[in-house]
Write a structure and sequence with these properties.
Strand content: 15-25%
Radius of gyration: 26 Å
CATH topology of the largest domain: Jelly Rolls
Largest sheet: 6 strands, antiparallel
Number of domains: 2
Protein name: AraC family transcriptional regulator
InterPro entries: AraC-bd, Homeodomain-like_sf, HTH-like, HTH_AraC, HTH_AraC-typ_CS, Tscrpt_reg_AraC-type_HTH
Organism: Paenibacillus hexagrammi
Keywords: DNA-binding, Transcription, Transcription regulation
CATH architecture of the largest domain: Sandwich
Helix content: 40-55%
CATH superfamily of the largest domain: Regulatory protein AraC
Pfam families: AraC_binding, HTH_18
Length: about 280
Amino acid sequence: MIEYLQKSKHHTELHLTQFGIESCIPRHFHGPAVRDYYLLHYILEGRGSFEVGGTTYTLGKGQGFLICPGVVTYYEADASHPWTYCWVGFNGTLAEWLLKQAGLTLSSPILHYNSDDRLYRYIQMMDDSKKDFPRSRESRLNGLLYLMLSELVESGPVEPNSPKSVRSEVYVEKVLDLIEVNYAQKITMEDIAHAIGLNRSYLCSLFKQRMNTSIQDYLIRCRINKACEMMGNAELSIGDISRSVGYNDPLLFSKMFKKVKGLSPKHYRTELQTEAGD
Protein backbone atom coordinates (compact mmCIF):
# COMPACT_ATOMS: atom_id res chain seq x y z
CA MET A 1 0.00 0.00 0.00
CA ILE A 2 1.32 3.42 -0.96
CA GLU A 3 -0.27 6.82 -1.44
CA TYR A 4 1.27 10.00 -2.79
CA LEU A 5 -0.28 13.29 -1.74
CA GLN A 6 -0.45 16.68 -3.38
CA LYS A 7 1.40 19.64 -1.89
CA SER A 8 -0.47 21.26 0.98
CA LYS A 9 -1.40 24.93 0.49
CA HIS A 10 -2.46 25.39 4.10
CA HIS A 11 -0.28 23.25 6.39
CA THR A 12 3.11 24.86 5.82
CA GLU A 13 4.45 23.93 9.28
CA LEU A 14 4.08 20.18 8.71
CA HIS A 15 2.46 18.17 5.94
CA LEU A 16 2.53 14.66 4.51
CA THR A 17 3.87 14.00 1.04
CA GLN A 18 3.35 10.22 1.04
CA PHE A 19 2.90 7.17 3.24
CA GLY A 20 2.82 3.41 2.77
CA ILE A 21 3.50 -0.14 3.88
CA GLU A 22 5.54 -2.63 1.86
CA SER A 23 6.73 -6.23 2.20
CA CYS A 24 9.93 -6.27 0.19
CA ILE A 25 11.30 -9.11 -1.87
CA PRO A 26 14.88 -10.27 -1.13
CA ARG A 27 17.51 -7.63 -1.98
CA HIS A 28 14.88 -5.10 -3.01
CA PHE A 29 16.63 -1.70 -2.98
CA HIS A 30 16.25 2.04 -3.46
CA GLY A 31 19.01 4.42 -4.54
CA PRO A 32 21.55 5.71 -4.36
CA ALA A 33 19.27 8.77 -4.62
CA VAL A 34 18.20 11.99 -2.91
CA ARG A 35 14.79 13.25 -1.79
CA ASP A 36 13.53 16.82 -1.39
CA TYR A 37 11.51 15.91 1.73
CA TYR A 38 11.98 13.89 4.91
CA LEU A 39 11.33 10.15 4.60
CA LEU A 40 11.04 8.05 7.74
CA HIS A 41 10.93 4.24 7.58
CA TYR A 42 9.94 1.95 10.45
CA ILE A 43 10.69 -1.79 10.21
CA LEU A 44 7.82 -4.11 11.15
CA GLU A 45 9.50 -7.44 10.33
CA GLY A 46 12.72 -8.72 8.78
CA ARG A 47 16.08 -7.08 8.19
CA GLY A 48 17.91 -4.81 5.79
CA SER A 49 20.67 -2.25 5.47
CA PHE A 50 20.73 1.53 5.20
CA GLU A 51 23.68 3.54 3.88
CA VAL A 52 24.27 7.27 4.33
CA GLY A 53 27.40 9.42 4.52
CA GLY A 54 29.73 6.46 4.12
CA THR A 55 28.19 4.51 7.00
CA THR A 56 26.16 1.30 6.66
CA TYR A 57 23.61 0.34 9.31
CA THR A 58 22.17 -3.18 9.60
CA LEU A 59 18.64 -2.84 10.95
CA GLY A 60 15.75 -5.04 12.04
CA LYS A 61 12.31 -5.08 13.63
CA GLY A 62 11.62 -2.14 15.95
CA GLN A 63 14.19 0.07 14.24
CA GLY A 64 13.96 2.57 11.43
CA PHE A 65 15.89 5.17 9.50
CA LEU A 66 15.52 8.81 8.52
CA ILE A 67 16.31 10.16 5.07
CA CYS A 68 16.92 13.91 5.09
CA PRO A 69 16.30 16.21 2.10
CA GLY A 70 19.15 16.54 -0.36
CA VAL A 71 21.19 13.65 1.08
CA VAL A 72 22.27 10.62 -0.96
CA THR A 73 21.08 7.35 0.62
CA TYR A 74 20.77 3.69 -0.30
CA TYR A 75 18.78 0.93 1.41
CA GLU A 76 18.33 -2.73 0.63
CA ALA A 77 16.27 -5.63 2.00
CA ASP A 78 18.07 -8.65 3.44
CA ALA A 79 18.57 -11.60 1.07
CA SER A 80 17.19 -14.27 3.44
CA HIS A 81 14.84 -12.33 5.70
CA PRO A 82 13.74 -9.19 3.79
CA TRP A 83 12.08 -6.46 5.73
CA THR A 84 8.51 -5.26 5.82
CA TYR A 85 8.34 -1.58 6.68
CA CYS A 86 5.97 1.33 6.83
CA TRP A 87 6.98 4.87 6.02
CA VAL A 88 5.92 8.50 5.96
CA GLY A 89 7.27 11.26 3.75
CA PHE A 90 6.75 14.80 5.03
CA ASN A 91 8.07 18.35 5.04
CA GLY A 92 7.39 21.74 6.57
CA THR A 93 9.00 24.42 8.69
CA LEU A 94 8.58 22.36 11.88
CA ALA A 95 9.76 19.04 10.46
CA GLU A 96 13.45 19.35 11.33
CA TRP A 97 12.71 20.67 14.84
CA LEU A 98 10.24 17.86 15.65
CA LEU A 99 12.65 15.22 14.40
CA LYS A 100 15.45 16.72 16.46
CA GLN A 101 13.23 16.50 19.55
CA ALA A 102 12.95 12.78 18.79
CA GLY A 103 16.74 12.47 18.50
CA LEU A 104 16.65 12.04 14.73
CA THR A 105 19.07 14.12 12.66
CA LEU A 106 21.33 13.76 9.65
CA SER A 107 24.17 12.65 11.94
CA SER A 108 21.87 10.42 14.02
CA PRO A 109 19.42 8.91 11.51
CA ILE A 110 18.50 5.62 13.24
CA LEU A 111 15.18 5.17 15.00
CA HIS A 112 14.59 2.78 17.91
CA TYR A 113 10.94 2.16 18.84
CA ASN A 114 9.96 -1.13 20.47
CA SER A 115 7.05 0.11 22.59
CA ASP A 116 4.02 -1.15 20.65
CA ASP A 117 2.44 -1.23 17.19
CA ARG A 118 1.18 2.35 17.37
CA LEU A 119 3.30 3.66 14.49
CA TYR A 120 1.91 0.95 12.24
CA ARG A 121 -1.63 1.72 13.35
CA TYR A 122 -1.18 5.41 12.53
CA ILE A 123 -0.26 4.44 8.98
CA GLN A 124 -3.38 2.29 8.76
CA MET A 125 -5.48 5.15 10.09
CA MET A 126 -3.99 7.41 7.41
CA ASP A 127 -5.16 4.95 4.79
CA ASP A 128 -8.60 4.54 6.38
CA SER A 129 -9.07 8.32 6.48
CA LYS A 130 -9.72 8.32 2.73
CA LYS A 131 -13.15 6.80 3.30
CA ASP A 132 -13.76 7.82 6.92
CA PHE A 133 -12.87 11.53 6.65
CA PRO A 134 -13.34 12.56 3.00
CA ARG A 135 -14.08 16.24 3.74
CA SER A 136 -11.44 16.82 6.39
CA ARG A 137 -8.83 14.36 5.25
CA GLU A 138 -5.90 16.77 4.90
CA SER A 139 -6.29 17.94 8.50
CA ARG A 140 -6.83 14.34 9.65
CA LEU A 141 -3.62 13.18 7.96
CA ASN A 142 -1.65 16.04 9.51
CA GLY A 143 -3.08 15.26 12.93
CA LEU A 144 -1.99 11.64 12.61
CA LEU A 145 1.48 12.74 11.50
CA TYR A 146 1.76 14.97 14.57
CA LEU A 147 0.65 12.05 16.76
CA MET A 148 3.24 9.77 15.19
CA LEU A 149 6.04 12.26 15.71
CA SER A 150 4.90 12.92 19.28
CA GLU A 151 5.28 9.19 19.97
CA LEU A 152 8.84 9.34 18.68
CA VAL A 153 9.64 12.42 20.76
CA GLU A 154 8.23 10.79 23.90
CA SER A 155 10.14 7.55 23.38
CA GLY A 156 13.30 9.20 22.07
CA PRO A 157 16.61 9.58 23.91
CA VAL A 158 16.62 11.71 27.05
CA GLU A 159 18.94 14.69 26.80
CA PRO A 160 21.73 14.78 29.38
CA ASN A 161 21.28 17.25 32.21
CA SER A 162 22.24 20.76 31.17
CA PRO A 163 24.36 23.02 33.40
CA LYS A 164 22.32 24.66 36.16
CA SER A 165 22.64 28.11 34.57
CA VAL A 166 21.26 26.81 31.27
CA ARG A 167 18.37 25.04 32.99
CA SER A 168 17.43 28.20 34.88
CA GLU A 169 17.29 30.15 31.62
CA VAL A 170 14.98 27.51 30.17
CA TYR A 171 12.65 27.68 33.19
CA VAL A 172 12.52 31.48 33.09
CA GLU A 173 11.81 31.40 29.36
CA LYS A 174 8.94 29.00 30.01
CA VAL A 175 7.48 31.36 32.61
CA LEU A 176 7.71 34.28 30.17
CA ASP A 177 6.02 32.27 27.43
CA LEU A 178 3.32 31.05 29.81
CA ILE A 179 2.50 34.58 30.93
CA GLU A 180 2.51 35.90 27.36
CA VAL A 181 -0.15 33.38 26.40
CA ASN A 182 -2.21 33.34 29.63
CA TYR A 183 -1.98 36.87 31.07
CA ALA A 184 -5.74 37.36 30.51
CA GLN A 185 -6.60 34.31 32.62
CA LYS A 186 -7.00 34.12 36.39
CA ILE A 187 -3.55 32.58 36.72
CA THR A 188 -1.82 32.14 40.09
CA MET A 189 1.77 31.51 41.09
CA GLU A 190 0.72 27.95 41.97
CA ASP A 191 -0.65 27.51 38.45
CA ILE A 192 2.59 28.73 36.91
CA ALA A 193 4.80 26.57 39.14
CA HIS A 194 2.63 23.52 38.41
CA ALA A 195 2.79 24.15 34.66
CA ILE A 196 6.59 24.50 34.77
CA GLY A 197 6.96 21.51 37.10
CA LEU A 198 8.94 23.20 39.85
CA ASN A 199 8.39 24.06 43.49
CA ARG A 200 6.78 27.50 43.75
CA SER A 201 9.36 29.00 46.12
CA TYR A 202 12.27 27.70 44.06
CA LEU A 203 10.79 28.96 40.78
CA CYS A 204 10.06 32.41 42.25
CA SER A 205 13.61 32.65 43.59
CA LEU A 206 15.10 31.52 40.29
CA PHE A 207 12.97 34.02 38.33
CA LYS A 208 13.89 36.90 40.66
CA GLN A 209 17.59 36.13 40.24
CA ARG A 210 17.39 36.11 36.45
CA MET A 211 14.89 38.92 35.87
CA ASN A 212 15.43 41.21 38.89
CA THR A 213 11.68 41.23 39.49
CA SER A 214 9.12 38.82 40.89
CA ILE A 215 6.84 36.69 38.74
CA GLN A 216 3.84 38.51 40.24
CA ASP A 217 5.21 41.94 39.35
CA TYR A 218 6.15 40.77 35.87
CA LEU A 219 2.61 39.44 35.35
CA ILE A 220 1.10 42.75 36.51
CA ARG A 221 3.32 44.77 34.19
CA CYS A 222 2.55 42.45 31.30
CA ARG A 223 -1.19 42.92 31.88
CA ILE A 224 -0.92 46.70 32.18
CA ASN A 225 1.25 46.96 29.05
CA LYS A 226 -1.32 44.91 27.14
CA ALA A 227 -4.02 47.23 28.48
CA CYS A 228 -2.09 50.25 27.23
CA GLU A 229 -1.99 48.72 23.76
CA MET A 230 -5.80 48.49 23.83
CA MET A 231 -6.36 52.05 25.04
CA GLY A 232 -6.18 53.42 21.51
CA ASN A 233 -9.24 51.39 20.49
CA ALA A 234 -12.16 53.76 21.16
CA GLU A 235 -14.66 50.91 20.84
CA LEU A 236 -13.32 49.32 24.02
CA SER A 237 -14.47 50.68 27.36
CA ILE A 238 -12.15 50.73 30.37
CA GLY A 239 -14.18 47.80 31.73
CA ASP A 240 -13.70 45.85 28.49
CA ILE A 241 -9.96 46.40 28.67
CA SER A 242 -9.85 45.51 32.36
CA ARG A 243 -11.55 42.16 31.78
CA SER A 244 -9.45 41.49 28.67
CA VAL A 245 -6.22 41.60 30.66
CA GLY A 246 -7.36 39.46 33.59
CA TYR A 247 -8.98 41.95 35.98
CA ASN A 248 -12.69 41.37 36.53
CA ASP A 249 -12.62 43.96 39.30
CA PRO A 250 -12.29 47.42 37.64
CA LEU A 251 -11.18 49.00 40.92
CA LEU A 252 -8.30 46.56 41.26
CA PHE A 253 -7.41 47.18 37.62
CA SER A 254 -7.37 50.93 38.18
CA LYS A 255 -5.19 50.48 41.27
CA MET A 256 -2.67 48.26 39.45
CA PHE A 257 -2.68 50.53 36.40
CA LYS A 258 -1.91 53.62 38.48
CA LYS A 259 0.80 51.73 40.36
CA VAL A 260 2.58 50.84 37.11
CA LYS A 261 1.87 53.93 34.96
CA GLY A 262 1.51 56.64 37.58
CA LEU A 263 -1.98 57.70 36.50
CA SER A 264 -5.44 56.19 36.20
CA PRO A 265 -6.63 54.32 33.08
CA LYS A 266 -9.05 57.16 32.31
CA HIS A 267 -6.34 59.83 32.52
CA TYR A 268 -3.94 57.66 30.51
CA ARG A 269 -6.51 57.31 27.72
CA THR A 270 -7.20 61.06 27.78
CA GLU A 271 -3.50 61.84 27.38
CA LEU A 272 -3.25 59.25 24.60
CA GLN A 273 -6.14 60.86 22.73
CA THR A 274 -4.64 64.33 23.23
CA GLU A 275 -1.30 63.21 21.78
CA ALA A 276 -3.08 61.61 18.84
CA GLY A 277 -4.90 64.86 18.12
CA ASP A 278 -1.76 67.00 18.06
